[in-house]
């Protein structure tokens, strides 16, 4: 494969506390970009994590870039005593608005006020990256409903909830976005990623907010994260005004029919490449490395195919953020990418 531009490896870091020794090992292994996931954190925590990462990059003397992955509107479960609860198919659960429940068997808390008022009987929703599927069976009020779990698995506290029908109806420009953007000049990220971009109009609003914070020596690349059907449908107008896109497969696979994900990824990368725009393929690239030394064969093929499709970068998430040996993921990704680039 002859390519004029090397394929970047983006590694997600664990930001609180900042694991300097872990991250140094990734720098030594040849990481290209550090990603700070700004979701579910306060503005202060986001700013501190970005500044810590920037200081480390500068002190390393290496040309590692910094990506600020900004938050979106998330529906989440609340807290309960157990970290996870095993559930069985066809069991019905009561969901109630609130921060916590002392017993998830009595009710499961959710932290999105008025959610019941947006639901319909028969709506399907998922927890996490699709660990469990539920079907809404009864709606009692705007803040209380009943749903039946469709498969066996673990219900994890504080996990995200995705309701495909509502994905594009939510306002993903979070209330604190102006505060977060005002902090960015302190760390000067090289790339700023906006989540759940679904239209040119939405992205123009976000870019206008970002431009108010720009300085003569800081003008980051704007990355539009494509995570919903509307974003896929409007990809041409989105590409007209951004520097690049991220195929954010975690949420995207829950928002579109999962069997279409591979074809959508190829379509989005091809469109970005045709316009000489940066493209990132993200989520579950080398997740098997959390449990295995040699990656799953499907992971090897996934990275290979993303490279062959012409992606500018692959992004590693838990395999670097949650691993005790994050450098291994960098080494494996570099080996696979090297074979493709030299083929």
- pLDDT < 50 runs, ≥5 residues: none
Instruction: Assign the CATH superfamily of the largest domain.
Output: Phosphoenolpyruvate-binding domains
Helix content: 25-40%
Number of domains: 2
Count of runs of 4 or more consecutive helical residues: 12
Rounded radius of gyration (Å): 20 Å
Mean pLDDT: 96
Instruction: Give the SSE order as H and E letters.
Output: EHEHEEEEEHEEEEEHEHEHHEHHEHEHH
Which CATH class of the largest domain? Answer: Alpha Beta
Anisotropy-based shape: globular
What would you say about this model in short?
With 343 residues, this protein is α/β, with parallel strands linked by helices.
Q: Can you give a write-up of this model?
A:
- With about 350 residues, this protein is α/β, with parallel strands linked by helices.
- The protein folds into 2 domains: about 10-70 and about 175-340, TIM Barrel (Alpha-Beta Barrel), CATH 3.20.20.60; about 75-170, PK beta-barrel domain-like (M1 Pyruvate Kinase, Domain 3, Beta Barrel), CATH 2.40.33.10.
- Helices cover about 35% and strands about 25% of the residues.
- It has helices at about 20-30, 45-60, 115-120, 175-185, 200-210, 230-235, 235-240, 250-255, 260-275, 295-310, 320, 325-340, and strands at about 10, 35, 65-70, 75, 85, 90-95, 110, 125, 130-140, 145-150, 155, 160, 190-195, 220-225, 245-250, 280, 315.
- The strands form 3 sheets. An 8-stranded parallel barrel has the order 1-2-3-13-14-15-16-17, surrounded by 6 helices. A 7-stranded mixed sheet has the order 4-12-8-9-10-6-7.
- Strand 16 (about 280), helix 10 (about 295-310) and strand 17 form a beta-alpha-beta unit.
- Helix 1 packs parallel to helix 12 (about 325-340) and helix 10 crosses helix 12.
- The longest helix is centred in the N-terminal third of the chain and has 18 residues, at about 45-60.
- The chain is globular.
- The mean pLDDT is about 95.
- This is Pyruvate kinase.
- GO terms for molecular function: ATP binding; kinase activity; magnesium ion binding; potassium ion binding; pyruvate kinase activity.
